[in-house]
Each structure stands twice: as structure tokens, then as C-alpha cells.
Design goal:
The chain is mostly helical and 453 residues long. It contains 20 helices and 5 strands. A 5-stranded parallel sheet has the order 2-3-4-1-5. Helix 18 links the parallel strand 3 and strand 4. It is flat, with a radius of gyration of 31 Å.
Length: 453
């Protein structure tokens, strides 16, 4: 089962209106109940009229009892119809007021469907609708308030977009963070009709086609792969006539190709003035794929802002603050990363040492031991760390069942379950979707080292 974009938009609209204008949502719900009652009464009247007509014998005009029933039914029916008319008019006014909040609901729907494709990149990138809605509610409560509707919606949209970005980024590997920003950016632009979806898909794939029979005009510097992609690019509406112009201006394009920073250089005429920023990116993607990363970085920076190309550094305290006793915290491992030293230090700072902190490395025969540790910790309010979950594939269904049974009334508020695992398609999806996921790769470069120190 998967929710549709329109269905999610309506759900988010109901949530934001209920929070921002509770009186509107209450009135709307009351109207729905009233309308249902009115329709039920009308149906009962119709049934009564039919019953009276069928039961009447001889001339109905001479049946005083039947005439009284029909007259009273008509009066009641008219009253109900008037009530329903007033209710319909009121509902229209409420819908007009609710429609003011639709832009933020539509924006939220685009954001959700930007994260649903992430499992195609890595099986550990799983996020549930309940998790997403909870994040939306947090943004409604924490974003800057304003009596001016347009300003309020802008504050809420900006807060939720960045809040989602930060929460998703902490669970992504470094290599995928820019890709996520780019997907987010392109989906938002496509939703506003500021980007053509066909062009976006071409940028991602380079197009698909049969063997190219057109001769490469500059084989000394232009690879056959680049030439093939450029020929396929010419099938896009915006690039009509590009191939012929390229062939006649090969020397100009050679200068562009040789530029040290082609992503910052103007395209040979007339294309620099003719194309949008994204269409220019498509050309560079074909000619100089080595410059795609700085190009995408600049594009996201310009469209969404600097903070969407600078992921927040790893923050274990923030991840812990976002968790509760019923939500596992999951470290997604990468080669060279060992979160245990940092976790032990954090546990010590929080007072979870000795018997209050139990760690076990999963493997053959360790499942029952882990179950006992969790059962005891649920009552005592201690921490349990299950390392290397990817090595205990057969025990994962049992762990999933244990996590599903976590409930506030049965779990000590101080209890936490910490899990570590390398990416695995056998890791329980429900645990991933609802847990707080973190990656903590070894820092690369001086800046990352300083940020993590």
C-alpha cells in the first residue's frame, strides 16, 4: 500500500489547518456529521412516503391519514433541504479558508515523495509516513509564528524543508548527501513547473538510444560517449538544432571544453542566452562529466541556499534528543567507522555505565542472549547495544517483533536500544522506518576533522 501525492496533500492540509485554525477544522467536521444526518433523514422521509403510498387502498385523496403523513413529510423535507443549503454554503466558506494553507501541504507532499525513492540508493534509507508526519508537526510547533498568512506559510515551509533535510542527512552516507539535496531541489522546481521532468531524467541517465551513426566531428578531444549523449540530447525540445550548430562551431566548443572551470564559463552563442540554468547543466554533463559535482553544488546553492550543500556535522546528542524509549537508534556502518568509542563516552556523560550499559556483538547463537538483555533493560531503564546486526540475519525477524511490541506503558522511559549494522536488505524495514538512523563516517579533509573534533 502506498499513499498518493493528492491523498497525502489532503492529509497534511487537515493536519496544518487543525493546528493553525482548530476552529475551522472543528466546524468542518461538525458540518460533515450534520450533512450525513440530513441525508439520512431525507432517506427516511422518502421511505416513509413510499410505504404510505403502497399501503394506501383506493383513492389516496380520500385517505386523511395518508394525506397528513405526506404533508408533514413535505414540511420536514423542506426544512432539512434549507438546513443542507446553509450547510453547503458554510462548507464553501470553510474550504476557501482551508485552501489558503494548501501551498504548504502541496510542498510537504513533494518533500515526502523525494525521500520514498532513497531505498533504491541504499536499503537502509527507509522512512515511514508516520515519521514524516511527526516531523511536520514538530515544524508547525517550532517554526516562527505570524498573523500574516503568506509570511507564516513561508516560515513553516522553510523550517520543514530544512528540518527534513537535516534529519534525512544524518542517516545518509557522505557520497549521497549532495544527491539528496539535488533530488529535493529538482522535485520542488518540477512541482512549480520551473523544470521539465524529461530534461531532469536525461540529466540523470544521459538518455537511451540505439547505435549512433552520426560521425563524431572532433574525435581528438570529444569522446564517442559524449558525442552519443549530445546527439540524444538534441531530441529534447530546447536543444533543437544544437548538433548542427555544434559541428559548425567546434573550435569554440573546444575552448569551452578546455576551460579549467567550464561550469562557471559562458556557453558559446547563442546557447548561453537561449537556455535555462538547468539546460546548460545538461550540456556540461555531456561534455565534462568530471565537473558535474561542483556544477550540482552551485545549482542547489543558488536554488535552495548555502545550508543545503553543507550537511550538519554528526551530533549524537541531537539524535538522542530526537529519540524515545520506544524508538531504536541505529548506526549505519561504513568501512573504517566505529561508533562505539563515541557511544561509550556519551553513555558515561549520561550516567549509563557499569550495569546500566550492556553491549553484545551479534552472531551465531547470540539472539537469545540479546533477547534477555532487552527484556531486563525494558524494566530497569538501562541501555542495550546490539552490534553488527547484519551478521545475525536469521534473528532479525525476532528483533523486529520485539521492537514492534515496545509501548510507552510497558517500557521504562530511560531505556534505549542502540543497533549497529552495515547496509543490508535483510534489516527489518519497519525498524529502519521508525528508528533514528545515523551515519558517522571517518572525516575526510581538514574541515570535516575540525567539525567533528
Amino acid at each position: 500500500f502506498m499513499i498518493t501525492p493528492d491523498g497525502l496533500e489532503d492529509q497534511l492540509l487537515g493536519i496544518v489547518v487543525a493546528k493553525e485554525r482548530p476552529e475551522l477544522e472543528e466546524e468542518r467536521n461538525a458540518l460533515i456529521v450534520q450533512s450525513a444526518a440530513n441525508k439520512k433523514q431525507l432517506k427516511q422521509i422518502e421511505d416513509k412516503i413510499l410505504e404510505t403510498l403502497s399501503a394506501s387502498e383506493g383513492n389516496i385523496l380520500e385517505d386523511e391519514s395518508a394525506i397528513q403523513i405526506l404533508d408533514s413529510s413535505k414540511v420536514l423535507s423542506n426544512e432539512i433541504s434549507k438546513k443542507q443549503k446553509v450547510a453547503d454554503e458554510t462548507e464553501k466558506k470553510i474550504e476557501q479558508s482551508r485552501a489558503g494553507y494548501r501551498p504548504v501541504a502541496s510542498h510537504g507532499s513533494v518533500l515526502f515523495f523525494s525521500i520514498t525513492d532513497l531505498p533504491n540508493i541504499d536499503p537502509m534509507y527507509q522512512y515511514s509516513l508516520a515519521w514524516f508526519v511527526n516531523l511536520f508537526l514538530i515544524s508547525i510547533n517550532e517554526s516562527t509564528k505570524s498573523k500574516h498568512l503568506e509570511r507564516r506559510l513561508r516560515y513553516l515551509t522553510e523550517h520543514f524543508t530544512y528540518n527534513l533535510y537535516c534529519n534525512v542527512c544524518r542517516s545518509l552516507f557522505e557520497k549521497d548527501k549532495l544527491l539528496f539535496s539535488f533530488i529535493l531541489c529538482c522535485n520542488l522546481l518540477t512541482a512549480k513547473n520551473d523544470m521539465d521532468f524529461t530534461e531532469f531524467m536525461f540529466f540523470l541517465t544521459g538518455g537511451v538510444g540505439l547505435e549512433n551513426k552520426l560521425r563524431n566531428p572532433a574525435p581528438s578531444w570529444l569522446s564517442d560517449k559524449s558525442w552519443d549523449e549530445m546527439c540524444r540530447m538534441c531530441d529534447l525540445k530546447a536543444f533543437k538544432g544544437f548538433r548542427q550548430k555544434f559541428e559548425s562551431d567546434v573550435d569554440e566548443w573546444k575552448k569551452y571544453y578546455d576551460d579549467r572551470e567550464p561550469h562557471k564559463a559562458p556557453l558559446p552563442p547563442p546557447w548561453n542566452d537561449k537556455l535555462t540554468d538547468f539546460q546548460k547543466m545538461i550540456i556540461l554533463r555531456c561534455l565534462r562529466p568530471d565537473k558535474v559535482i561542483p556544477l550540482v553544488t552551485d545549482f542547489v546553492r543558488e536554488k535552495l541556499g548555502e545550508k543545503f550543500v553543507e550537511p550538519p556535522p554528526f551530533d549524537l546528542a541531537k539524535s538522542y534528543a530526537d529519540s524515545n524509549a520506544c524508538i531504536p537508534l541505529i548506526f549505519v556502518l561504513s568501512p573504517g567507522a566505529d561508533p562505539m568509542a563515541g557511544l561509550l563516552k556519551f553513555a558515561e556523560d549520561k550516567g549509563f555505565v557499569g550495569d546500566k550499559f550492556n553491549a553484545i556483538s551479534l552472531g551465531q547463537g547470540q539472539g537469545p542472549v540479546a533477547t534477555k538483555l532487552i527484556t531486563a533493560a525494558l524494566q530497569d531503564g538501562t541501555w542495550v547495544v546490539l552490534q553488527n546486526c547484519h551478521l545475525a540475519v536469521s534473528w532479525m525477524p525476532a528483533m523486529e517483533k520485539i521492537c514492534e511490541e515496545f509501548a510507552p506503558e510497558r517500557v521504562h522511559s530511560d531505556f534505549r536500544l542502540w543497533l549497529t549494522s552495515y547496509p543490508s536488505d535483510k534489516f527489518p524495514v519497519t525498524v529502519l522506518q521508525n528508528g533514528v538512523k545515523m551515519t558517522n563516517e571517518p572525516p575526510t579533509g581538514l574541515r570535516q576533522n575540525l567539525l567533528q573534533s
